[in-house]
Design goal:
By secondary structure, this protein is of the alpha/beta class. It contains seven helices and four strands, in the order βαβαββααααα. It has a four-stranded mixed beta sheet with strand order 1-2-3-4. It is globular. The relative contact order is 0.15.
Length: 192
């Protein structure tokens, strides 16, 4: 079976909206897929619907930032919902997306202090992340790399700028807290 269980859409760091991701997967001859956007399940419904129309088996999923300091783990885990129930996880991640939006608002303000008028407004960053479209009411998983790429596209940051240095200067330690892996796993298991 040809499968890819770690696909991303424009809701996080992919380059296409969920229906387009499904269409590309079908065109590539995949038989089983999962949309596992970072910290988001916002596009899962659209993805499942598109895959159903294409005759492509699909599993709801997400890639969730988490930590387990006692194990030295600080990263991401993939969670899958083969039974199709994921409402609790989707609601939890929606809260995380709102936290990301608030943080990105602060970081856009900081970028405007550092780079002046060449830095985007939050609305302009949203259009950039949405591929030039108005993101409307969509909750997008904003990341520092989105702002970095937007600034590069505007010529404010050089094309070969060091991302890690940029991130350190921009965030100044403003990091989004991560839930414990135990909590994320328990939420996923609660939905089968």
């Amino acid at each position: 079976m040809r499968a890819d269980l770690h696909l991303h859409s424009r809701y996080s760091d992919g380059w296409d909206w969920p229906a387009g991701v499904g269409a590309r997967a079908a065109a590539a001859g995949l038989e089983l897929v999962a949309l596992a956007d970072h910290e988001s399940m916002e596009g899962v419904g659209e993805f499942l619907e598109a895959c159903g129309r294409l005759g492509l088996a699909a599993v709801p999923a997400a890639e969730v930032d988490c930590t387990a300091p006692e194990l030295g783990f600080d990263g991401e885990i993939l969670v899958y919902f083969p039974g199709g129930r994921f409402g609790g996880m989707a609601a939890f991640l929606r809260g995380r997306l709102r936290e990301r939006e608030e943080r990105m608002g602060r970081l856009v303000g900081r970028a405007r202090e550092l780079y002046g008028a060449g830095a985007p407004t939050f609305e302009e960053l949203g259009r950039f992340k949405a591929g030039g479209q108005d993101p409307g009411a969509r909750l997008l998983a904003y990341a520092v790399v989105d702002l970095f790429e937007c600034l590069k596209s505007r010529g404010v940051v050089p094309p070969r700028a060091d991302y890690r240095g940029f991130k350190a200067a921009l965030t100044g330690g403003d990091a989004q807290p991560k839930p414990h892996a135990r909590y994320v796993i328990a939420r996923a298991r609660a939905e089968g």
